[in-house]
Amino acid sequence: METPLKKNDRYEVEIIDIGAAGEGIGKINDFIVFVPSTVTGDVAEVHIIKAKKSFAYGKLLRIIKPSPFRNDPRCNTASQCGGCQLQHIAYSEQLQWKTKKVKEALRRIGGLQHIKVEDTLGMENPFNYRNKAQYPIRKENGEIKIGFFASRSHRIVPSESCVIQDIRNERIIQVIKDFLTQYNITIYNEETHQGLVRHLLIKTAYHTQEMMVCLVINGKELPHQDKLIQQLKAVEGIKSIVLNHNTGQTNVILSSHITVIDGQDYIIDNIGDLQFKISPLSFFQVNPLQTKVLYDKALEFAALTGTETVWDAYCGIGTISLFLAQKAKKVYGVEIVPEAIANAKANAELNGITNAAFYVGKAEEIIPKMYEEGIAADTIVVDPPRKGCDPKLLETLVAMSPEKIVYVSCDPATLARDLAYLTQNGYRVDGVQPVDMFPHTVHVECVALIEALSS
Ligand code: SAH
Question: What pTM was computed for the model?
Fold first, then answer.
């Protein structure tokens, strides 16, 4: 049956659920309509912007009756910018929705009905939590704009005061804007591939308050860079100013080519008792307070006694590895980004940890190779990117048959897929703990404890 809903029609809709992308779901005569910026319990006036066969997309025009779960967003561009899909939902309700999202992914994608999923661990103050921001810089109608891309577009929503970023970023954005204007520096244009300045990347350290500023440019040199350095150095905490040279015709923000123009090529932050060097290209968890919560959970699940050999697959700059190393006999970390492994080795040294070894390469290649050479593990921690573990890695895990696997996941869908494989191959899932690393967004991180059936 074709949807009777027509583009540009208006309806009064009651929202009955929230979809996986955070959009409200309503029904108009049995046809589903997705309405961003609404929440279960809202009654809203909706403008149909796209009508498909069995569902439609609508734009919120007006809330007729607000849901008890509705929250006034702190940020006045929350509904335009693609960053926070859930800011209009009360935080406690966001957490409940995340728990449900994990349960549903396990059931629907993994066919796993009876796994214990704990309540999502949230933040006390879920604002200004991010330690990394990547702002596109564009010129629109002659005006320099620094902000975020609007949802599904490359139009910039200016972001002088994003409520999830470090508040110190506002000052940096202003300095960069003034510099670019004052010296008439050209701004990158995606269509013509002309113009110099493409992106601004800021990394901040929560505990040490150090900052790194990285300007991504479509070329080799930044004119008047000394002036920029001078202006940035007036901001307290800046330890590293770098250029990233990205001349590719690509949406990828960073190239692998970095020049340090002032200070160090890293900043330092702490997690718990350990210190970490963070470089422009290496991955570091973006929410420092919740990272501690996540790692503590991973460590609790690993329940190490000091005798174990442990693999940390997808180890980044060695954060989880070094936590594990304090409690294990030996830890091996593997990671694909060479700079991250250089950081991991430096981090082991910085913290006086001598029982951790790190390898550059694909986890699905290095771990099987080392297994053939006789290195097996009692416990394996995996923390893959969103696409989950490579099948070859999962096969090796099963062959190696560690007693415990601790799976840290940033995507419940691929977690569900991989847990299904493990449960069909000699393992059981003892529990899944969601942790809210990304308040106000639809993302949810999980730690799962998986044990061999024979143990
Ligand atoms: N455990 C780390 C990093 C997790 S993010 C932390 O908590 O900080 C996932 C990491 O996997 C990234 O650093 C990414 O560079 C790396 N990666 C992606 N594909 C990989 C692969 N096939 N093999 C090894 N590492 C990979």
Answer: 0.92
